[in-house]
Amino acid sequence: MDEDKTAEAKRAAEILDRSDDNAQAIEPPIDALTWRSSEERNRLLHKWRRAVLPRYGEQPRALRVAWVLESLFNVKRGYAFPSNEYLAAETGMTERDVQKGLQALDDVIVRVVKRGGNTDRKIWPRRLFDTSTVDVPRHVHDVDTHNLRRLHRIPRTQMATARAAAELRDRREHEAAMPRKRWPSVRVTPKAERQPLHRHIRG
After folding, report:
1. How many Cα neighbours within 13 Å face the side chain of 99?
2. How far is the CA of 70 from the CAs of 52, 110, 183, in angstroms?
3. In the structure, what pLDDT confidence band is assigned to residue 13 with cuts at 50, 70 and 90?
4. CA distance 67 to 148
5. Partners of 110 in the beta sheet?
6. Per-residue confidence (pLDDT) for residue 21, from 0 to 100
7. Distance in angstroms (rounded) separating the CA atoms of residues 80 and 39
8. Does the structure show a pLDDT above 90 at 63?
């Protein structure tokens, strides 16, 4: 089952790549987030992602769709044009859930659909901030378009903390599962019951 989904995702990616080569540049919507270079794209999408995450922190379906869309926003044209089938294969959701996720993201994306519905749908990130004041740390990677396999690494300090917490939890569970040792009880003889000590005096 997983192999079938992987194969479908690869075929959809190849179709997207070929379509991207033949796509024509169009005028973006007035409220779409646009850029002029790959470096500017990465800076703007970094801030766009930071604006999206707090809004949809309790909506994992929308976040999964947004994560895939972010990697698909084209450097030159600024928009993505995946089908619901492709998004479903990448997110592991049904096409119906993908559509619900897209509807939930309408506040942070701009969708333009023409003629054949999803066959000619273009999606831009929505401009949520003043682009003239964008400044992010220099460690943001210059990622090219359609890079779907690169995952954001967890900082080592967080990994060490999580590993230590997991080890502590495992140790406590192990100690709780072990039977406790029972020491033999010691009976203290009352003073009244004690036998008197006789001293033998030699003559």
Report:
1. 6
2. 11, 13, 64
3. low
4. 9
5. 124
6. 47
7. 18
8. yes
Domain regions of the chain by residue span: 2-156
> Where is mean pLDDT largest: 25-39, 42-56, 143-157, 162-176?
42-56
Closest CA to 122 of 10, 27, 2: 27
44, 124 Cβ separation under 8 angstroms: no
Q: What is the pLDDT of residue 88?
A: 95
pLDDT in tens, 114-145: 865 456 899 999 999 887 765 544 444 444 44
Count Cβ atoms below 10 Å from residue 172 Cβ, excluding itself.
Answer: 10
Q: Is 121 helix (H, G, I), strand (E, B) or coil?
A: strand
Residue 43: which of 132, 122, 105, 106 has the closest Cα? 132
Alpha-helical (H) ranges within the chain are 2-22, 38-55, 60-72, 84-91, 95-104, 156-177
- The tokens for 173 are 């569970």
Length in residues, the chain: 203
Q: What is the pLDDT of residue 169?
A: 76
Q: DSSP code of 125?
A: E
| Residue listed under structure tokens 């005096």 | 201
Q: Which residue type is seen at 129? A: F
* Closest to 61 in 3D by CA, of 83, 106, 93, 86: 93
Average pLDDT of span 185-193: 61
